[in-house]
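Quick start: what a row looks like.
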Amino acid sequence: MTTRALGRSGLRVGPNAFGVAPLANLGHEVSDAQAAEALEAAWAAGVRYFDTAPHYGMGLGERRLGEFLRAKPREEFVLSTKVGRLLVDGPDDPRPDDEGFAVTTTLRRRRDYSQDGVRCSLEESLERMGLDRVDVVFVHDPDDYFADALDGAFPALDSLRREGVIGSYGAGMNQQEMLARFVRDTDLDVVMCAGRYTLLEQGALDELLPAAQEREVSVVAAAVFNSGLLARDRPAAGVTYDYAPAPPALLERVNAIADVCEGHGVSLPAAALQFALGHPAVATVCTGARSAEQVQRNAALFDVPIPEQLWADLVVAGLLPADTPTPGAHS
C-alpha cells in the first residue's frame, strides 16, 4: 500500500484512515460486538491509522478502540486522540448525553485548553485505552478558545513532543480559517480538517492547504462525504449538511457532480473519497463506519479506477476550480 508522511516525526499512513466516532454510539447505539467487527474489518482492509477522542461517546470510543488495539503489535499502527474536553464527574444520577452520542453516564465534559488540562487529558486517554502512548494529539474544536489553545494547549503539546511523549501534534476542526492561523503561528505538523476540503467544497484551498504546503504540515481530510451528501450515488431524502437540512442549491450542485461521475461510470462516493488525496498536502482520508460492511464498502471505494477526464469535466462544468490538484496529478 502506498503511504505518505504524517507530520515530521517519521510517521507514515495509508490513504484510508479510520475515525471511531460512529463506534462510540454517534447518533444511535452500536454494540460492543459490532464495534469490534468493524475495527477488525478495518485492520483486514489495511487500515493502520486510527483516530479517536474523549468527546466520542464520553470515552466510549477510546475504550473500544484501546481494547481492539491492545491485541495488535504497537509498531504496526498509528494512533491519534484529542485534547480540549476533560471528562469530569457530574451528578450521581446518570443522564443521556446531550451532544449526539447515545450514551448514559454520570460524566460531564468540561472544556480545558490549559497546559495542565492537556497533560491530564492525555493521561486519562491512555488509561482509558490501556496503551502506553499515542502518536498524534489534536487540539479538538478550539473555535471559541483561540487564545487558550495558543497560550496553553499548543505549548503543552510542543513540550510533550520535545520530551518524546508524542510524535506529532496539531488541531482538528470543522473550519479552515483558524486551522490556517494555527499552521502559521505554531509549530504543529498535522491538522485534521473536517468537511472543508471535499468534492463539494474546497474552502481549504484559500489559506489552509497553501500554508500547510509551505510549512510542511500534513493534512488529514475528514468528513469528506459532507454529512452524508456525497455518501450515496444520489443524496437521500432529508439529508443534512453541517447538522441542518441541506439547502436546495447544495442538492442541485451534488446532483450535477453525480451526473458527471455517472458519465464516467464512477460512483459519487468513490470520487468523493479519492478527491482529497489529489492535494499534495493531504496525507490520508479519515472516514468512520458503524459496521464491518460499511468498512469494507469504504475500503473498496479507494480502489475504484477514476479517469482523469472526470476531474477535467468537473472543472469545465464549473463544479471544481480550474487550479484544483486532482488525484491524476499527484501520487
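That is the whole record. The chain has one domain: 12-319. The two ends are 12 Å apart (CA to CA).
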